[in-house]
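Contributing: when you submit paired examples, paste them exactly as shown. First protein:
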Amino acid sequence: MRWLAAILLICLALPLWGQEQSALARIDPDRSSLIAEGKDRGKPRPLELRLAISHPVPYRVYFLDAPPRLIVDFREIDFSSTEPAALAGHDLVPGLRWGRFRPGWSRLVMELSGPYALATAIQSLRQDGAGGADLTLRITPVEQAAFKPRGNAMSALRDLPTPARVASGRTARATDQPLRIAIDPGHGGHDPGAEVGVIREAAVMLGFARELSEVLTRAGYEVIPTRQDDSFVPLEQRMTVARGGQADLLISLHADALPAGAAAGLSIYFWDQDSDDRAARQLALHHDRSDLVAGLDLTGTDDSVADALMDLARQETQPRSEAFARFLVSALNRSGVTMHRHPVKGAAFSVLKSPDIPSVLIELGFLTDENDRANLFDPEWRRHTAQSIASAIGEWAKDEAVRTSLSRQ
């Protein structure tokens, strides 16, 4: 089922290309190349891989380490008629190979001379009338600390508190220390999120996150932003930022797009891997699409040990996430903020997977709904919503203190 979810996720990461092609795509070596930018001074240089293929295909890109290498998985390209040595510029890297690696999937592996990061990944229809598509991947050298090779399920367990600390709750801190709230504006950088005309979800959420952060700071909370500009932050790194700041609560902000009439109004989500809500499944695919391109697919592992450990940690964390969602609904109701008819739902959003930090994702509205769109650009609506979130945090914190006190008796 995880591979099925990943496949669906990849497909939604691409534009609609028309009717599905029945034949496997093939590479055109005469139109494909690997290019290095700048002069060769003995150091890693930015690289651009251009692949001309007979028709568009779903793909995902990620990095592996030891040795560093770029991996591109396709569904599916028939590489059997072309050797890697036929690619112009193949000798710019230590090694290049490709081929079919499992039913329905083919893979390109490019060994690298050092750590790199993905700068752009674009697949576009060819404009010269010849048909087919061009896939262009640009990667740039980075310092080792900035290298983000593909994670696995175990990586979500890094820096977890000890079992005793989990049991006592992360909010059990000195009373003179403010609660730490991680604010996560969704998308960013090469992933703009939902787009309606010139409106980009990533920009709208960054603006609201700044307003919310100001309200929370004035209310006495410490804010931990996962991004502060229009930059791309992988989902796993967002959790890492929250954990590194010892966040007591993570709030991810979105304003997505669904087919007209499919959804409207503010909604609040908590982690539920088994959610069967159709709209939630669609949104999960949209939210996670960027990490397939960046190579940090949190769903693509089969580590039963890690899954079991995370499920164990969530037994204590999950009820706290759901409790905050209920407090938030109450605060929003008091402020008269319009919500979805079923405002609290479970969903398999990867950013909510942290097993040790209570986490919720707030869909502030849907850019595809006219009323929601107007709300998102209404200063009064944003102010009421931000203040409601702050009020809910305060009520939730009091409930946490009582719960922690009872757990110590």
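Second protein:
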Amino acid sequence: MKLRISLAQMDIALGEPRRNLETLKTFIDAAVVAGSDVLVLPELWSTGYVLEQAEKFVTRTTEGIFADVSQLAQQHRLHIVGSNLSLLAENQYGNTLTWAAPDGTLLGSYNKMHLFRLMDEEKYLTAGDEPVMIATPWGQVGLSICYDLRFPELYRQYALAGAQLILVPAEWPHPRLNHWRTLLRARAIENQLFVIACNRVGQGGDVSFCGHSAIVDPWGDVLVEGGEEEGLFTADIDTTAVEEIRAKIPVFADRRPELYTK
């Protein structure tokens, strides 16, 4: 099936969710004008990395900034996907990705499984303990966040379970831009599916983020890629390409999983 996806490559204001929400609204307006079906936001788009202040910003996924996004999705008849700080349980906080549908409901949520020590995530957050794949009008979609990209096992699990797309909201910094671009294409090629990746730009504290949000097709071709400035980047995709490419090079039929654990 065909769909149009937009990536909102934002420069996030640290610890200012109301300001970032206003920025989001401008991206939503642009996505609507572009005729997009889905708008993907960066990781922790409403606050950035202010993990030491997490208690100040966390809410349950039915409240606060999550509810604001659901309302905007319903208002604009748009699917909106992005991650924020969430309250998992008393004194337990997550980096949680949600997918808000055009009727305002949540199609699903995913708590980041692999916490990034270089940003002290493990000091403040509770890691997720399961992959999440959701059903959308265009097929099955696997959810991941930033550092998860370095773990091919997760992406292969999604592919084997029938995912046609995998989403990657991120705050991926310099100097690892080449890693970002290479891994996005590798995950798409090896799993023969679409990888939809939205990274932030700008400066967050003493960290510079490298942007280059991208949509990569199952052949590894980059359909759209941003630079290092704020912007909306849009591409049309057709999920039938997944089965076509898997038929052309039958990687999954040729797997020998019984040998991989020896």
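If you have annotations for the second protein, write them as plain sentences, like these:
The longest strand covers residues 79-89.
DSSP finds seven helices and 14 strands in the chain.
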